[in-house]
Amino acid sequence: MELPLSALKYEMQEAVSIATRRLQQLTTAAPLRVYAIAHCLSLMDTMIFAARTVSQQKTQSAYVEEFEEIPVSAYRNLLVYCDGGTVQWTTASAPTSVGGHSNRIGPPLATASSRRPDKDILPLAFDPDSAEVIIRTSDSVRLGISKEILRLSSPVLFGRLTAAPSSDKSDITAFVIDVDEPSDVMLLLLGLCHPDICPELADLPVVIAALEPAQKYHMKKATWYLCNNMQLLARDPSVDPVSLYFAACRFRIQDLAKVAAQRTLRKDLIKGSFLDVDFPGVSAGCLWRLLDYHQRCRVTVRALFDGGTTWISTEWTTKLKAHCTRSTKSVPCCWLGSYLRAIGREAWPNRTGPTNETALTAAIGSSDYYSSDRRCDGCSGTKGLTSIVSFSRYMEEMIDEREGMVELPWLTS
Hints:
Layout: H1 5-26, H2 31-40, H3 44-57, H4 72-82, E1 88-90, E2 95-97, E3 133-136, E4 142-145, H5 147-153, H6 155-159, E5 175-178, H7 183-193, H8 204-216, H9 220-233, H10 241-250, H11 254-264, H12 284-306, H13 314-323, H14 336-344, H15 357-364, H16 377-380, H17 382-405
Parallel strand pairs: 3-5
Antiparallel strand pairs: 1-2, 3-4
Protein backbone atom coordinates (compact mmCIF):
# COMPACT_ATOMS: atom_id res chain seq x y z
CA MET A 1 0.00 0.00 0.00
CA GLU A 2 1.41 3.35 -1.00
CA LEU A 3 1.77 6.09 1.60
CA PRO A 4 -0.37 9.17 1.02
CA LEU A 5 1.52 12.14 -0.43
CA SER A 6 0.93 14.15 2.75
CA ALA A 7 2.59 11.38 4.80
CA LEU A 8 5.60 11.29 2.52
CA LYS A 9 5.85 15.07 2.75
CA TYR A 10 5.71 14.88 6.54
CA GLU A 11 8.44 12.22 6.63
CA MET A 12 10.69 14.40 4.44
CA GLN A 13 10.10 17.43 6.62
CA GLU A 14 10.96 15.39 9.70
CA ALA A 15 14.18 14.16 8.06
CA VAL A 16 15.17 17.73 7.16
CA SER A 17 14.47 18.85 10.72
CA ILE A 18 16.67 16.08 12.14
CA ALA A 19 19.49 16.90 9.70
CA THR A 20 19.21 20.59 10.53
CA ARG A 21 19.41 19.99 14.28
CA ARG A 22 22.48 17.76 13.87
CA LEU A 23 24.22 20.30 11.67
CA GLN A 24 23.54 23.05 14.18
CA GLN A 25 25.04 20.88 16.92
CA LEU A 26 28.25 20.64 14.86
CA THR A 27 28.44 24.36 14.15
CA THR A 28 30.69 25.31 17.07
CA ALA A 29 33.23 22.59 16.27
CA ALA A 30 33.20 22.93 12.46
CA PRO A 31 31.40 26.11 11.36
CA LEU A 32 33.00 26.27 7.89
CA ARG A 33 31.95 22.71 7.07
CA VAL A 34 28.43 23.34 8.35
CA TYR A 35 28.24 26.55 6.30
CA ALA A 36 29.19 24.72 3.11
CA ILE A 37 26.91 21.73 3.75
CA ALA A 38 23.99 23.96 4.65
CA HIS A 39 24.52 25.90 1.42
CA CYS A 40 24.39 22.66 -0.59
CA LEU A 41 21.24 21.50 1.22
CA SER A 42 19.57 24.94 0.94
CA LEU A 43 19.26 25.23 4.73
CA MET A 44 19.31 29.03 4.82
CA ASP A 45 18.90 29.56 8.59
CA THR A 46 21.58 26.98 9.41
CA MET A 47 23.94 28.50 6.87
CA ILE A 48 23.56 32.02 8.28
CA PHE A 49 23.98 30.69 11.84
CA ALA A 50 27.21 28.97 10.74
CA ALA A 51 28.41 32.17 9.05
CA ARG A 52 27.94 34.08 12.31
CA THR A 53 29.94 31.42 14.16
CA VAL A 54 32.73 31.60 11.56
CA SER A 55 32.84 35.36 12.00
CA GLN A 56 32.97 35.08 15.81
CA GLN A 57 35.73 32.45 15.69
CA LYS A 58 37.58 34.30 12.88
CA THR A 59 38.14 31.02 11.02
CA GLN A 60 37.14 32.23 7.54
CA SER A 61 40.71 31.78 6.23
CA ALA A 62 40.79 28.05 7.00
CA TYR A 63 40.18 25.41 4.33
CA VAL A 64 37.64 22.59 4.28
CA GLU A 65 37.10 20.02 1.54
CA GLU A 66 33.47 21.10 1.18
CA PHE A 67 34.73 24.31 -0.50
CA GLU A 68 35.05 22.23 -3.68
CA GLU A 69 31.29 21.59 -3.60
CA ILE A 70 30.03 25.17 -3.31
CA PRO A 71 30.32 28.05 -5.79
CA VAL A 72 32.87 30.82 -5.45
CA SER A 73 30.04 33.25 -4.69
CA ALA A 74 29.16 31.36 -1.50
CA TYR A 75 32.67 31.76 -0.06
CA ARG A 76 32.91 35.32 -1.31
CA ASN A 77 29.69 36.19 0.56
CA LEU A 78 31.08 34.63 3.73
CA LEU A 79 34.28 36.71 3.47
CA VAL A 80 32.33 39.91 2.90
CA TYR A 81 30.11 39.14 5.89
CA CYS A 82 33.10 38.41 8.14
CA ASP A 83 34.66 41.67 6.97
CA GLY A 84 31.61 43.56 8.21
CA GLY A 85 29.77 43.90 4.92
CA THR A 86 26.12 43.26 4.08
CA VAL A 87 25.51 40.48 1.59
CA GLN A 88 22.77 38.71 -0.30
CA TRP A 89 22.85 35.21 1.11
CA THR A 90 22.25 32.44 -1.40
CA THR A 91 21.96 28.70 -1.16
CA ALA A 92 22.01 26.05 -3.87
CA SER A 93 18.39 26.84 -4.72
CA ALA A 94 17.16 30.05 -3.05
CA PRO A 95 18.50 33.62 -2.69
CA THR A 96 17.40 35.99 0.06
CA SER A 97 18.32 39.47 1.24
CA VAL A 98 19.65 40.21 4.72
CA GLY A 99 20.13 43.57 6.39
CA GLY A 100 17.92 45.62 4.09
CA HIS A 101 20.52 45.78 1.32
CA SER A 102 21.68 43.32 -1.29
CA ASN A 103 24.86 43.12 -3.31
CA ARG A 104 23.88 42.30 -6.87
CA ILE A 105 24.75 38.85 -8.00
CA GLY A 106 25.65 39.75 -11.55
CA PRO A 107 25.52 37.97 -14.88
CA PRO A 108 27.58 34.85 -15.49
CA LEU A 109 31.22 35.30 -16.35
CA ALA A 110 30.63 33.78 -19.77
CA THR A 111 27.71 35.41 -21.48
CA ALA A 112 27.32 35.19 -25.20
CA SER A 113 25.75 38.03 -27.09
CA SER A 114 21.99 37.84 -27.27
CA ARG A 115 22.03 39.52 -30.68
CA ARG A 116 20.70 37.18 -33.31
CA PRO A 117 22.52 37.39 -36.65
CA ASP A 118 20.44 38.46 -39.61
CA LYS A 119 20.18 35.86 -42.36
CA ASP A 120 21.27 38.46 -44.90
CA ILE A 121 24.57 39.12 -43.11
CA LEU A 122 25.52 35.50 -42.41
CA PRO A 123 28.93 34.62 -43.89
CA LEU A 124 28.58 33.09 -47.34
CA ALA A 125 30.37 30.00 -46.06
CA PHE A 126 27.36 29.26 -43.84
CA ASP A 127 24.57 29.94 -46.34
CA PRO A 128 21.87 27.36 -45.49
CA ASP A 129 20.11 27.43 -48.85
CA SER A 130 22.46 25.07 -50.68
CA ALA A 131 24.21 23.36 -47.78
CA GLU A 132 24.50 19.61 -47.21
CA VAL A 133 24.07 20.03 -43.45
CA ILE A 134 22.14 22.63 -41.50
CA ILE A 135 22.93 23.38 -37.88
CA ARG A 136 19.88 24.85 -36.19
CA THR A 137 20.83 26.92 -33.13
CA SER A 138 18.90 27.59 -29.93
CA ASP A 139 17.76 30.97 -31.31
CA SER A 140 16.44 29.27 -34.49
CA VAL A 141 19.19 30.47 -36.83
CA ARG A 142 20.06 28.01 -39.62
CA LEU A 143 23.76 27.69 -40.41
CA GLY A 144 24.77 25.71 -43.49
CA ILE A 145 27.96 23.67 -43.73
CA SER A 146 29.34 20.86 -45.88
CA LYS A 147 29.61 17.32 -44.56
CA GLU A 148 33.36 17.20 -45.10
CA ILE A 149 34.07 20.40 -43.19
CA LEU A 150 31.76 19.23 -40.39
CA ARG A 151 33.60 15.88 -40.28
CA LEU A 152 36.93 17.66 -39.94
CA SER A 153 35.55 20.19 -37.46
CA SER A 154 33.64 18.05 -34.97
CA PRO A 155 33.40 14.25 -34.82
CA VAL A 156 30.61 14.64 -32.25
CA LEU A 157 28.37 16.76 -34.47
CA PHE A 158 29.23 14.67 -37.51
CA GLY A 159 28.16 11.58 -35.60
CA ARG A 160 24.73 13.13 -35.03
CA LEU A 161 23.86 13.32 -38.72
CA THR A 162 20.59 11.61 -39.47
CA ALA A 163 19.20 10.46 -42.80
CA ALA A 164 15.78 11.77 -41.87
CA PRO A 165 15.13 14.98 -43.86
CA SER A 166 13.81 18.12 -42.21
CA SER A 167 10.11 18.89 -42.29
CA ASP A 168 11.09 22.35 -43.53
CA LYS A 169 10.73 22.28 -47.32
CA SER A 170 13.74 24.53 -47.74
CA ASP A 171 15.83 21.89 -45.93
CA ILE A 172 14.42 18.89 -47.82
CA THR A 173 17.82 17.70 -49.12
CA ALA A 174 19.82 18.68 -46.06
CA PHE A 175 20.68 16.91 -42.85
CA VAL A 176 19.62 18.92 -39.81
CA ILE A 177 21.41 19.05 -36.45
CA ASP A 178 19.83 20.91 -33.53
CA VAL A 179 22.23 22.34 -30.94
CA ASP A 180 21.71 23.99 -27.56
CA GLU A 181 24.04 26.92 -28.27
CA PRO A 182 23.04 30.32 -29.71
CA SER A 183 24.00 31.36 -33.21
CA ASP A 184 26.80 33.76 -32.24
CA VAL A 185 28.64 30.96 -30.40
CA MET A 186 28.18 28.44 -33.22
CA LEU A 187 29.23 31.00 -35.85
CA LEU A 188 32.47 31.55 -33.93
CA LEU A 189 33.16 27.83 -33.49
CA LEU A 190 32.40 26.90 -37.08
CA GLY A 191 34.38 29.91 -38.30
CA LEU A 192 37.41 28.80 -36.29
CA CYS A 193 37.28 25.43 -38.04
CA HIS A 194 36.47 26.68 -41.55
CA PRO A 195 39.43 26.87 -43.99
CA ASP A 196 38.12 30.02 -45.71
CA ILE A 197 37.55 32.13 -42.60
CA CYS A 198 40.27 34.03 -40.71
CA PRO A 199 39.08 34.51 -37.11
CA GLU A 200 39.76 37.67 -35.11
CA LEU A 201 40.97 37.85 -31.53
CA ALA A 202 37.95 37.52 -29.21
CA ASP A 203 37.46 39.11 -25.81
CA LEU A 204 37.34 37.04 -22.62
CA PRO A 205 33.53 36.60 -22.19
CA VAL A 206 33.23 35.44 -25.80
CA VAL A 207 36.11 32.99 -25.41
CA ILE A 208 34.60 31.49 -22.27
CA ALA A 209 31.16 31.20 -23.85
CA ALA A 210 32.64 29.32 -26.81
CA LEU A 211 35.24 27.15 -25.10
CA GLU A 212 32.82 24.88 -23.24
CA PRO A 213 30.84 23.85 -26.36
CA ALA A 214 34.12 23.55 -28.29
CA GLN A 215 35.25 20.95 -25.79
CA LYS A 216 31.82 19.31 -25.70
CA TYR A 217 31.80 18.84 -29.48
CA HIS A 218 35.49 17.80 -29.59
CA MET A 219 36.37 20.69 -31.89
CA LYS A 220 40.15 20.43 -31.52
CA LYS A 221 41.08 23.36 -33.73
CA ALA A 222 38.56 25.70 -32.11
CA THR A 223 39.60 24.55 -28.63
CA TRP A 224 43.28 25.16 -29.41
CA TYR A 225 42.54 28.61 -30.82
CA LEU A 226 40.36 29.66 -27.87
CA CYS A 227 42.91 28.46 -25.29
CA ASN A 228 45.67 30.27 -27.17
CA ASN A 229 43.43 33.34 -27.32
CA MET A 230 43.15 33.25 -23.53
CA GLN A 231 46.94 33.07 -23.22
CA LEU A 232 47.24 36.20 -25.38
CA LEU A 233 44.62 37.98 -23.29
CA ALA A 234 46.84 37.41 -20.24
CA ARG A 235 49.22 40.01 -21.69
CA ASP A 236 46.47 42.60 -22.12
CA PRO A 237 46.44 44.98 -19.14
CA SER A 238 42.79 45.87 -19.82
CA VAL A 239 41.65 42.28 -19.13
CA ASP A 240 40.54 41.72 -15.54
CA PRO A 241 43.05 39.24 -14.05
CA VAL A 242 40.56 37.93 -11.47
CA SER A 243 38.12 36.93 -14.23
CA LEU A 244 41.01 35.44 -16.19
CA TYR A 245 42.12 33.40 -13.17
CA PHE A 246 38.64 31.99 -12.59
CA ALA A 247 38.32 31.21 -16.29
CA ALA A 248 41.62 29.33 -16.19
CA CYS A 249 40.41 27.39 -13.15
CA ARG A 250 37.14 26.56 -14.83
CA PHE A 251 38.89 25.06 -17.84
CA ARG A 252 41.84 23.70 -15.80
CA ILE A 253 44.58 25.67 -17.60
CA GLN A 254 47.15 25.68 -14.80
CA ASP A 255 49.90 27.78 -16.42
CA LEU A 256 47.39 30.50 -17.35
CA ALA A 257 45.97 30.43 -13.81
CA LYS A 258 49.46 31.13 -12.41
CA VAL A 259 50.01 34.08 -14.78
CA ALA A 260 46.59 35.52 -13.96
CA ALA A 261 47.11 34.97 -10.22
CA GLN A 262 50.37 36.92 -10.35
CA ARG A 263 48.52 39.82 -11.94
CA THR A 264 45.95 39.80 -9.13
CA LEU A 265 48.59 40.36 -6.45
CA ARG A 266 47.84 43.35 -4.19
CA LYS A 267 44.27 43.53 -5.47
CA ASP A 268 41.57 43.48 -2.79
CA LEU A 269 39.79 40.20 -3.47
CA ILE A 270 37.11 40.84 -0.84
CA LYS A 271 36.09 44.40 -1.68
CA GLY A 272 37.13 44.36 -5.33
CA SER A 273 34.89 45.02 -8.31
CA PHE A 274 34.54 41.30 -9.06
CA LEU A 275 32.09 41.09 -6.16
CA ASP A 276 29.35 42.17 -8.56
CA VAL A 277 29.90 39.20 -10.85
CA ASP A 278 29.27 35.52 -10.30
CA PHE A 279 31.53 32.83 -11.76
CA PRO A 280 29.52 29.75 -12.80
CA GLY A 281 31.44 26.50 -12.75
CA VAL A 282 34.09 27.81 -10.32
CA SER A 283 34.24 26.40 -6.79
CA ALA A 284 34.92 28.27 -3.58
CA GLY A 285 38.16 26.31 -3.36
CA CYS A 286 39.53 28.31 -6.31
CA LEU A 287 39.01 31.58 -4.43
CA TRP A 288 40.50 30.11 -1.26
CA ARG A 289 43.63 29.01 -3.17
CA LEU A 290 44.00 32.48 -4.69
CA LEU A 291 43.72 34.12 -1.26
CA ASP A 292 46.21 31.62 0.16
CA TYR A 293 48.59 32.43 -2.72
CA HIS A 294 48.28 36.15 -1.93
CA GLN A 295 49.04 35.55 1.73
CA ARG A 296 52.16 33.47 1.04
CA CYS A 297 53.45 36.00 -1.51
CA ARG A 298 53.00 38.80 1.00
CA VAL A 299 54.84 36.85 3.71
CA THR A 300 57.78 36.02 1.45
CA VAL A 301 58.15 39.67 0.40
CA ARG A 302 57.83 40.91 3.99
CA ALA A 303 60.74 38.63 4.93
CA LEU A 304 63.04 40.94 2.91
CA PHE A 305 62.27 43.74 5.36
CA ASP A 306 61.52 41.95 8.62
CA GLY A 307 64.14 39.21 8.74
CA GLY A 308 67.53 40.88 8.58
CA THR A 309 69.85 41.15 5.54
CA THR A 310 71.07 37.56 5.13
CA TRP A 311 69.09 37.33 1.88
CA ILE A 312 71.45 39.81 0.15
CA SER A 313 73.79 37.96 -2.19
CA THR A 314 77.52 37.69 -1.46
CA GLU A 315 78.22 39.72 -4.58
CA TRP A 316 76.04 42.60 -3.44
CA THR A 317 77.29 42.44 0.14
CA THR A 318 80.83 42.88 -1.19
CA LYS A 319 79.79 45.79 -3.43
CA LEU A 320 78.05 47.64 -0.60
CA LYS A 321 80.93 47.19 1.83
CA ALA A 322 83.44 48.40 -0.75
CA HIS A 323 82.40 52.06 -0.36
CA CYS A 324 81.08 52.19 3.21
CA THR A 325 83.36 53.10 6.09
CA ARG A 326 80.72 52.19 8.70
CA SER A 327 79.78 48.71 7.48
CA THR A 328 79.48 45.84 9.96
CA LYS A 329 79.19 42.08 9.68
CA SER A 330 75.38 42.22 9.83
CA VAL A 331 74.83 45.57 8.04
CA PRO A 332 76.91 45.94 4.86
CA CYS A 333 76.43 49.72 4.50
CA CYS A 334 75.32 52.70 6.55
CA TRP A 335 72.22 53.66 4.55
CA LEU A 336 70.72 50.18 4.15
CA GLY A 337 68.64 50.18 7.35
CA SER A 338 66.91 53.50 6.59
CA TYR A 339 66.33 52.42 3.00
CA LEU A 340 64.72 49.08 3.90
CA ARG A 341 62.56 50.66 6.62
CA ALA A 342 61.24 53.22 4.12
CA ILE A 343 60.16 50.47 1.69
CA GLY A 344 58.88 48.24 4.48
CA ARG A 345 56.36 50.81 5.68
CA GLU A 346 54.03 49.33 3.08
CA ALA A 347 52.17 46.26 4.35
CA TRP A 348 53.00 44.50 1.09
CA PRO A 349 55.82 46.30 -0.77
CA ASN A 350 55.67 46.08 -4.55
CA ARG A 351 58.43 46.24 -7.15
CA THR A 352 58.16 50.03 -7.51
CA GLY A 353 58.88 50.55 -3.81
CA PRO A 354 62.69 50.29 -4.06
CA THR A 355 62.90 53.07 -6.67
CA ASN A 356 60.29 55.49 -5.34
CA GLU A 357 61.28 58.91 -4.06
CA THR A 358 60.68 58.12 -0.39
CA ALA A 359 62.96 55.08 -0.37
CA LEU A 360 65.75 56.74 -2.34
CA THR A 361 65.58 59.84 -0.14
CA ALA A 362 65.94 57.63 2.93
CA ALA A 363 69.00 55.97 1.36
CA ILE A 364 70.62 59.25 0.39
CA GLY A 365 69.92 60.57 3.90
CA SER A 366 70.66 63.97 5.38
CA SER A 367 73.58 66.22 4.55
CA ASP A 368 73.57 67.46 8.17
CA TYR A 369 76.80 66.31 9.82
CA TYR A 370 75.06 65.65 13.16
CA SER A 371 72.12 63.70 11.69
CA SER A 372 71.92 60.00 12.56
CA ASP A 373 70.86 59.35 8.95
CA ARG A 374 73.96 61.01 7.53
CA ARG A 375 75.84 58.76 5.14
CA CYS A 376 79.51 58.04 5.60
CA ASP A 377 82.04 59.77 3.35
CA GLY A 378 82.45 56.66 1.23
CA CYS A 379 78.72 56.31 0.48
CA SER A 380 78.41 60.07 -0.17
CA GLY A 381 80.64 59.94 -3.22
CA THR A 382 79.68 59.27 -6.82
CA LYS A 383 80.31 55.52 -6.53
CA GLY A 384 78.24 55.38 -3.35
CA LEU A 385 75.28 57.12 -5.00
CA THR A 386 75.60 54.84 -8.02
CA SER A 387 75.49 51.79 -5.75
CA ILE A 388 72.25 53.05 -4.17
CA VAL A 389 70.57 53.28 -7.59
CA SER A 390 71.93 49.90 -8.67
CA PHE A 391 70.86 48.25 -5.41
CA SER A 392 67.33 49.62 -5.85
CA ARG A 393 67.09 47.72 -9.14
CA TYR A 394 68.41 44.62 -7.42
CA MET A 395 65.64 45.04 -4.84
CA GLU A 396 63.02 45.16 -7.61
CA GLU A 397 64.38 41.89 -8.97
CA MET A 398 64.35 40.32 -5.51
CA ILE A 399 60.68 41.18 -4.93
CA ASP A 400 59.76 39.70 -8.32
CA GLU A 401 61.93 36.64 -7.68
CA ARG A 402 60.48 36.00 -4.24
CA GLU A 403 56.91 36.20 -5.51
CA GLY A 404 57.77 34.10 -8.56
CA MET A 405 59.01 31.29 -6.31
CA VAL A 406 55.65 30.97 -4.54
CA GLU A 407 53.63 28.07 -5.95
CA LEU A 408 49.97 28.55 -6.77
CA PRO A 409 47.95 25.77 -5.06
CA TRP A 410 46.19 23.60 -7.63
CA LEU A 411 43.51 20.96 -7.19
CA THR A 412 44.83 17.92 -9.06
CA SER A 413 41.93 15.50 -8.55
